[in-house]
Amino acid sequence: MTLDEKELLHTIIHEELEARIIKRAYNAESEEYRKKFMKLLQGGDEKVHPYIDKVVNRYFRLRGL
Questions:
Q1: What is the rounded CA–CA span in Å between residue 61 and residue 42?
Q2: SS3 state of residue 58
Q3: Cα atoms found within 13 Å of the Cα of residue 54, Cβ hemisphere only
Q4: Residue 63 DSSP label
Q5: What span, in angstroms and rounded, lies between the C-alpha atoms of 18 and 3?
Q6: How many CB atoms lie within 10 A of CB 47?
Q7: Are 59 and 13 in contact (CB under 8 A)?
Q8: Which pLDDT score is estimated for 54?
Q9: What is the phi-psi region of residue 44: left when phi exceeds 0, alpha when psi lies from -120 to 50, beta otherwise?
Q10: HEC readout, 3-43
């Protein structure tokens, strides 16, 4: 996988996770999940982006990328 492909994949995963966080903050069936994701969202970009980057990096590490 080239660096450009890896960066593109990182961006796609990042945007998908951000959309899922927003969706779950407002529509999660579990009150516990709703509170968790709402708290994350209310922290702003300073909390959301490091969390997302951690998840994306874990994905790449598990896939050996």
A1: 28
A2: helix
A3: 6
A4: H
A5: 22
A6: 13
A7: yes
A8: 95
A9: left
A10: HHHHHHHHHHHHHHHHHHHHHHHHHCCCHHHHHHHHHHHHC
Q: Are 41 and 24 in contact (CB under 8 A)?
A: no
| pLDDT tens for each residue of the chain, 65 residues long | 898 999 999 999 999 999 998 888 888 888 998 888 899 889 888 989 999 999 999 999 999 98
Q: What is the pTM of this model?
A: 0.81
Q: Hey, what are 23's tokens?
A: 């969706």
Give CA–CA dist 46/55, Å, rounded.
15
Decide: helix, strand or coil at residue 2: coil
* Per-residue model confidence (pLDDT) at position 44: 86
